[in-house]
Amino acid sequence: MADAATSSLYAPSALVLTVGAGESADTATVLRAVTLTCAPTPGGSHPDPAAACAELTATGGQFGALAADAPTRTCTRQWEPVTITGDGVWQGKRVSWSATYGNACELRSTMAEGAVFTF
Length: 119
What we know:
Layout: H1 2-7, E1 13-21, E2 29-39, H2 49-58, E3 82-90, E4 93-101, H3 104-111
């Protein structure tokens, strides 16, 4: 009974993160997906859950705030869209977020410094 009481003190933070080929979250073909749990402790199938949870905590769970202000590299202009998503619960509130980039280079250039979508 004590375990149930202790775990109920934490608002759940459990997400499914994906990287897909396509122009929208609704139609993209999922290429990679991981789970990320941040409360009460980091976990899931994400390769670095502690770093990913720390980044999301620093932004208040705002995925859009993870993007770099300016691209970190120059990319070609070929159109091979890549869509990333974050769906689940963050601190007890339902979240559903997606962003589409022109190609994988643009994705890496925008999210290069972060751990959340590095899987």
